[in-house]
Amino acid sequence: MSLSQDILFEAQPYLIANEKHPFVQGIIHGELSPDQLRYYDEQDIAFEYNEVGIINALVNYSTNTEQALLFHKRQDLQLTMLRDWLAREPETMPHDWETLKQTPIQPINQMYRQHMAATIQTHSVLQILPSFAAGEWMYIELGKWMKSQTRVQDEPFKSFLTMGNGDFEGPHGYIQQFFNIIDHEAESATPREQEQAKQTFLKSCLLEWYFWDAAYKQITWDNWKAVALDGKGGPML
C-alpha cells in the first residue's frame, strides 16, 4: 500500500464526520444564519490568504522542476481566486489586499494556520504538502458527496463546496497530482517521516471539522476569554 492509499484509508472517518457536521448540513438545507455565513466567509478568505505562503514554500522546497511548475500553477489559481473573491465582497468585509491582511483571525483559524505554517521549517515537500492537500481533498470530496444530496438551490448555499473548472478532479487534477508527489517523496523517506506526513494530513482533516464548528458557533477570542476567566473552565467546543 502506498503512503497516499494509507492516508486516504485513515482519512475516511474524518470525511464522514465533516459530512455530518451541522454547518455542512446547514449548507444542504439552507439553514444557516447570515451571521454564521459572514463568520465563515471572513475567516475562510483569511485562511485562503495564509495558504499563499504555504504554496510559496512548496515552490521553494520542490525537489524537481515538475513539482515547482505544478505548485506555481496552483499559486496562480490561488491568487486569481482571491482577487475575484475580494472583488465580490462588500465594504464591510475584506474587499482588497490591504483589508484582507488586516482581517481578525479567530481561534480555530489561527490554530489551523499555525499547524500548516509549522511544517515549513521542515524544508520538506513530504511534510508541507499534506498539511495543505488535506483541505483541498476534503473540500473536493464533500463537493462530490453534495452532488448526491437534495440541496437548496438558493445562493449563497448553492455555491458552497463547488469547484467550477474541474482542475482538482480526475487523474490529472491537482488532488491526484498532490498524492503522486507525496508517494514519490515517500520513496526516499524513513518510516518515521512517512508517519509524520500522514498524521499531518489527518490533523488538517480534523481541523477542517473544527473550522466548520467554529463558524457554526461563531467562536471568537472573546468566547475563549470568557470561558477562561469565568472560573468554571471547561472546553469551548
UniProtKB/TrEMBL annotation:
Enzyme superclass (EC): hydrolase
CDD domains in the record: TenA_C_SaTenA-like
Domain Thiaminase-2/PQQC span(s) in chain numbering: 18-217
EC number: 3.5.99.2
Keywords linked to the UniProt accession: Thiamine biosynthesis
Pathway: Cofactor biosynthesis; thiamine diphosphate biosynthesis
Listed InterPro entries: Haem_Oase-like_multi-hlx, Thiaminase-2/PQQC, Thiamine_Salvage_TenA
UniProt-recorded Gene Ontology molecular function terms: thiaminase activity
GO biological process assignments: thiamine biosynthetic process; thiamine diphosphate biosynthetic process
Keyword check for GTP-binding: no
GO CC list: cytosol
Pfam families: TENA_THI-4 (PF03070)
Catalytic activity: 4-amino-5-aminomethyl-2-methylpyrimidine + H2O = 4-amino-5-hydroxymethyl-2-methylpyrimidine + NH4(+); thiamine + H2O = 5-(2-hydroxyethyl)-4-methylthiazole + 4-amino-5-hydroxymethyl-2-methylpyrimidine + H(+)
PANTHER family listed in its UniProt record: BIFUNCTIONAL TH2 PROTEIN, SI:CH1073-67J19.1-RELATED
Oligomeric form and interacting partners: Homotetramer.
Family from the record: Belongs to the TenA family.
Protein name, per record: Aminopyrimidine aminohydrolase
